[in-house]
């Protein structure tokens, strides 16, 4: 299964074609997953299954994530959403660092 996933995610390329028939040169994809595949949604769900806690509620569907926060005052809502976005943006970097520690020591930090 791991080999199948790795082959699906690696060595992908694309060519753009305009309505007039002109084509771009072959380009390689360096990241991301194939759009529209069942595997893409499944991998996204695996990736976000341990998102950090936030004041906002998180809603995931297919390969999208939305956050929702209710506050009585606009300023408080804006500050809360900005704080939660900062937490979520920092998550992939923290997660990568934790995976490196686990792979070296064999135990979670």
UniProtKB/TrEMBL annotation:
It comes from the Eukaryota. InterPro entries: RdDP_mobile_element (IPR052560), RT_dom (IPR000477). PROSITE patterns: RT_POL. Residues 1-109 form the Reverse transcriptase domain. PANTHER family: ENDO/EXONUCLEASE/PHOSPHATASE DOMAIN-CONTAINING PROTEIN, ENDONUCLEASE_EXONUCLEASE_PHOSPHATASE DOMAIN-CONTAINING PROTEIN. This is Reverse transcriptase domain-containing protein. It comes from Muraenolepis orangiensis (Patagonian moray cod). The lineage of its organism: Eukaryota, Metazoa, Chordata, Craniata, Vertebrata.
